[in-house]
Amino acid sequence: MWIAISALNLAFAVMLGAFGAHGLKAHASEAQLVWWHTATDYFFYHALGLLALAILSKVIPQLPIKTSFILIQVGILFFCGSLYLMALGLPRVLGAITPIGGALMIAAWLVLAWNALKYAR
Asked: What CA–CA distance (Å, rounded) separates 99 from 79?
């Protein structure tokens, strides 16, 4: 299941990146394109992170990844989703949600680090 979710995230990242590069370019301001690009970059990084977690869960089944996986997924939705929506012209107030998504992503990696340290002992 983890690998399938990761693969879907990667597919969506490619689709959204292509839309930003080809479909949005003619209609968006420079700021909107920057938001879109930032969202797509972070989407890709964290979708690859999800795939790494999914692989880790197969290689080291004792390493708990569920919390990190969920935090990253929700972080993607909040961080990238808010930037995508603003890039599409929705109110900039959505930018208040962006840092919440970033904090969730950071928390996910810290939880993984903590669990990896516990597993190493």
From this structure: 7
